[in-house]
From TrEMBL:
<feature type="domain" description="EAL">
    <location>
        <begin position="20"/>
        <end position="274"/>
    </location>
</feature>
<protein>
    <submittedName>
        <fullName>EAL domain, c-di-GMP-specific phosphodiesterase class I (Or its enzymatically inactive variant)</fullName>
    </submittedName>
</protein>
Amino acid sequence: NSPDLISVYSHAADRIYQRRYHLLEDFATALESPDQLRLVYQPRIDLMSGKCLGAEALLRWEHPVLGNIPPDDFIPMTERSSRASALTAYVLGAAIRQMRDWQEAGLLLTISVNISASNLAETDFVDTLAAAVRHHEIPFERLELEVTESAIMHNPAYALAQLQKLSDLGVRVAIDDFGTGHSSLAYLRKLPADVVKIDKSFVTHIGKSAQDQALVRSMVKLSQELGYRVVAEGVESAQIAMLLREMGCEEAQGYYFARPLEAVQFLGWLHAPETG
Ligand code: C2E
Ligand code: CA
Ligand code: CA
Ligand code: CA
């Protein structure tokens, strides 16, 4: 009965394809009237002082029928589509308006925004971003862009030139998911980046695995020797936070400190007695 099996598989593949296709179309609609979209903000903590210096903006999509769709189910496919620039335009616009609101309330926080390989390939990306930042009178220094190694390696020469322009404006650049790509160290050294974010897959087990602990320790050391500030992602316990602090890791982000929060909740969290 192998033919049956094949037809079952191809039918399933068909449905996956159709589901993705509809999701992409639905997301394109959401981008045009973004009341289904919002940003949440995950605090980033200075491990020495325990203070929150900023937050990573993360996109949330409330589908009218399917409800909350996880970012991993719609962002990667959107990033490979013609909607990649609209996605980032939405996120940057919303993040910059939020920064202005916080700035007016006297809060000087850095916001980090995730960008993709295709954003870096857009010829007008830097100019559009600069115009939005200037329009809302936000200091460039308070905006950080998170770029993965693989996004950079997509077209290294052009990405490097774009990152250099951003860096010249004063925008901070972070290398996201560090350790998961396969960029050479020689290349990393040339990048006009300020921050390295160690991927959570390495951070998660440092409490139990001596090998992971050695790996993260050397990533921290290496990044610092190359002049980067180091942020650990996915910190889920006090033990992990303490180990990272002992390693000299500067900042951390993770469920142990806070989950990604709605803007209003974020303010509440910031002003709670045990944080801020
Ligand atoms: P990322 O950039 O690596 O973002 C960090 C992800 O880890 C977020 O998932 C966050 O909620 C999650 N996280 C934070 N702390 C912990 C922790 O302690 N433990 C665990 N297990 N997870 C933690 P989220 O929001 O589901 O986003 C997933 C990915 O989707 C992001 O990974 C990023 O690649 C992408 N993404 C999210 N928002 C945007 C966006 O606005 N633009 C773009 N281009 N990509 C985005
Ligand atoms: Ca990120
Ligand atoms: Ca990451
Ligand atoms: Ca990721």
